[in-house]
Amino acid sequence: MSSTHIEQFMSAKLAQALANNLFPELDSQLRAGRHIGVDDLDNHAFLMDFQDELEGFYARYNVELVRAPEGFFYLRPRSTTLIPRSVLSELEMLVGKVLCYLYLSPERLANQGIFSTAELYEELLSLADEAKLLKVVNNRSTGSDLDKQKLLEKTRGALNRLRRLGMITFVSADNSQFVIAESVFRFGADVRSGDDPREAQLRLIRDGEAQSLAEDEKHPRPEDQDDDNEESDNDNATDEAEDEE
């Protein structure tokens, strides 16, 4: 087919984008729900260069290529999306909101942006009701040591899933320390206002708000997907973060 015929269906710049070596893997990551931040230099620069063309490309699948105010990109599905999507669990949402709170905290600068899983867990327990958290993990929770251990394991699993969404990056060999990406503001969209953002985020956590990343997700995700903490480190990055919830 001649280039003239091709241009009847797509612009030369879109064809250039689709032919780029970066596109196949980046496309897979976006469809899996990954957020592409400025730290992902090549992919972010690629999306900046071809944003207009790719917005039209993804619109054919009934999803939006969104560039958030903080600069990161992600796909937001519409109700008629042709790309599979899934939903974060309540605990994963709550962990995401606590990460957003930590991102806004003075401690982030003091710690050079590095947090530990233990610090996150302590913050989670201090900001949210422990009894409610235990009920999220086990409806019949009695507050036993076993229940608390299960909550810690689920919290680690939530962190691992959010890693695959592009919201944190582990920086230690045992995955006990991580840095938080700006894409955690997906969990803080409701605090972009004139209020102090950290106080607004704290209110959301204490109120137990856990609305899903994807705006139109009404389909609960299978229980077996909750156990991301068991996944090995060679998990494919394209596994990541499910469509914008």
Automatic annotation (TrEMBL):
| Segments of this protein annotated with the region Disordered | 206-245
- What keywords does the record list, in alphabetical order? Cell cycle, Cell division, Chromosome partition, Cytoplasm, DNA condensation
In Pfam terms, one family for this protein is MukE
Which GO terms are recorded in the biological process aspect for this UniProt protein? Answer: cell division; chromosome condensation; chromosome segregation
> What residue spans carry the Acidic residues bias annotation?
224-245
Q: Which GO terms describe its cellular component?
A: cytoplasm
Which residue stretches does the UniProt record annotate as biased composition, category Basic and acidic residues? Answer: 206-223
Task: Give the protein name, as stated in the record.
Answer: Chromosome partition protein MukE
Provenance organism? bacterium 19GA11TI05
The taxonomy runs:
Bacteria
Name of the gene this protein is made from: mukE
